Amino acid sequence: MGLFSAPLARRQVAVALSGGVDSSVAAHLLTKMNMDVLGIHMSNWDYHGDDDGSRDTKCWEGDWKDAQAVARHLDIPIFHTSFEQDYWNSVFEPYITNLSQSITPNPDVDCNRYIKFGVLKEYLRKRFDIDTLATGHYARLYDGSDDRTQVPLCLEEFLDSNPASADFLDMEQPILMAARDVRKDQSYFLCGVSANALRGVMFPLGDLNKGSTKDPSQGDMHSESVRDIAQSARLPTASKRESMGICFIGKRRHAEFVNEYIEPKSGQEMKATCINVDDGSVISSFYPSETPSLAYATIGQGAKISGAAQKWFVVDKPDAKTVLVCPGTHHPALYSDSFIVEGVNWIQGIPPKLPLKAQCRIRHLQPLNECEVRATKDGRGVEVVLEKPFRGIATGQVCGIYLKGLVCLGGGAITTRGATYHALNKELPASLHPAGNNDLSTAKRK
Which positions fall inside the tRNA-specific 2-thiouridylase MnmA-like C-terminal domain (predicted)? Predict the structure, then answer.
């Protein structure tokens, strides 16, 4: 051996380059940290099966070209891969099956759990011998199993002000936290990812704002935003618009797209009926295949009933032939203050001591609601009791559980909704229905 030690090898990290500005900036920041960066681009949908002409321009081709342009600009290698079969089996097929059973799934949560932080990480390990994956998610993560990471200031402050939380947070396990930019926080979509899958994961954008902000609660108003960094670095995607919706659906409406993949029931199709939850009267009848927007509407969504003089909203779907509806967006039949979650993914591997005072949300960026999380009597899940009722609770929706708006403990799918305020004959808190319990302000004027 010589007198001098060999220089430490640069840390290898793969960055998921989607072709958007967020992942582009994440890759740029990693190169500035003197890491050995490799770009990886996924396309997980079989576009060859879409021969109806509704998706003439394959969005993944444009994204792939943009990802390649960013890689060239940053002088990093990039590879393309596809997990079409994995995506179909683990994400899309369960999604369609659940919708056909009037369950409201969240494919983004499943995609993160099974694809991005599942098969992709395994692929990187086997193909490139890389154990570190970075993405453009707006979230923060402390990985206590990695000696190279330091406890972030936000977590230090959280533990100092909440000493009781330190008793059950294992600092040697990954701790998932909300992003600094609460308007873009994506920790909810990550609540289904296990601790093992989060090891070796980096979220370079967690402490950044997406765009400039004049809101002092977002921190230093003079700090660089993701858009600022993209412009300064002259990234090819600096001005690219943010993608919305599901790419492979194309220009079609979601319900029409879903309708193509749900197999019709054998025999003659039965008509479904919309029934007024107040008096049991039939509002309308329809064939599900002809009115997919109503057939696949979830609880709380508007029921698009042809010819109706006022707006109706979906309350429940007790069976395939019945849709319970109510008049007005603030009807008590749309609100419940409890639900059951089974199969909770506790990110730290073990559940905290229950009951637990926490916060939760059942939709992306929904304001967090104070709640108490209790163990169910059968031990298969938890009951979440809300301080204020949520509107439109549906089975299949994912509940993310938080501490003090920062630490995401995990989450799981709702299996049972508690009784509605209508069923309990309870009045809603006045703060939830400024226009009245049964708001008919959206009714068409005659």
Answer: 336-414
